[in-house]
């Protein structure tokens, strides 16, 4: 995998060669090299391994996505800040199936680094709300859930948000015990 700086150096070298081709009169070659340099500039902002991991996740292939993400050896030097956010976001999604504590760390780090799409940020906060709710941190879960609903402008997560709110209401309801329970006075009347 190329370091993010190497991608820019390669793009600058290709652009310099394109300018040389223009000065020599080879306009078609110059245009082709400019287009080629745009690929490296695109890959500077959108990491190729993260894109391939997203494609694997769309097919529900968690092992394949993990394989592509594991090819990124040092995320701090190889990725820009937003890409590091998506790196942690993808790890959080994959780990949330088995280890909630680790998934919580990944999602919090992804939110702190930033995600460029509001839908992804809403999804990360929704997952964090679910983790907080399962750990009995209801206030934190409600706060994260309201933030997720504000970020979900397109309504892609409305069903999940409604379901999470219903689950929170059910858990917050009074615990009613039917049968032999009740007050001492009621038990004496029955017995």
TrEMBL record:
Entry keyword set: Membrane, Transmembrane, Transmembrane helix
Lineage top rank: taxon: Bacteria
Region ranges (Disordered): 168-191
InterPro entries in the cross-refs: TPR-like_helical_dom_sf
Bilayer-crossing regions: 5-20, 26-45
Keyword Transmembrane attributed: yes
Name recorded for this polypeptide: DUF2892 domain-containing protein
Organism, scientific name: Gelatiniphilus marinus
């Amino acid at each position: 995998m190329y370091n993010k700086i190497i991608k820019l150096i390669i793009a600058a070298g290709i652009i310099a060669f394109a300018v040389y081709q223009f000065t020599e009169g080879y306009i078609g070659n110059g245009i082709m090299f400019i287009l080629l340099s745009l690929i490296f500039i695109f890959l500077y902002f959108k990491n190729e391994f993260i894109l391939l991991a997203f494609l694997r996740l769309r097919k529900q292939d968690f092992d394949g996505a993990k394989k592509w993400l594991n090819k990124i050896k040092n995320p701090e030097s190889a990725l820009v800040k937003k890409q590091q956010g998506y790196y942690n976001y993808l790890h959080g999604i994959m780990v949330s199936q088995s280890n909630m504590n680790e998934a919580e760390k990944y999602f919090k780090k992804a939110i702190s680094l930033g995600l460029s799409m509001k839908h992804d940020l809403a999804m990360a906060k929704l997952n964090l709300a679910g983790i907080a709710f399962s750990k009995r941190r209801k206030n934190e879960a409600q706060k994260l859930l309201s933030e997720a609903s504000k970020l979900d402008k397109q309504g892609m997560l409305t069903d999940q948000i409604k379901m999470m709110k219903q689950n929170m209401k059910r858990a917050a309801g009074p615990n009613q015990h039917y049968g032999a329970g009740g007050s001492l006075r009621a038990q004496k009347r029955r017995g």
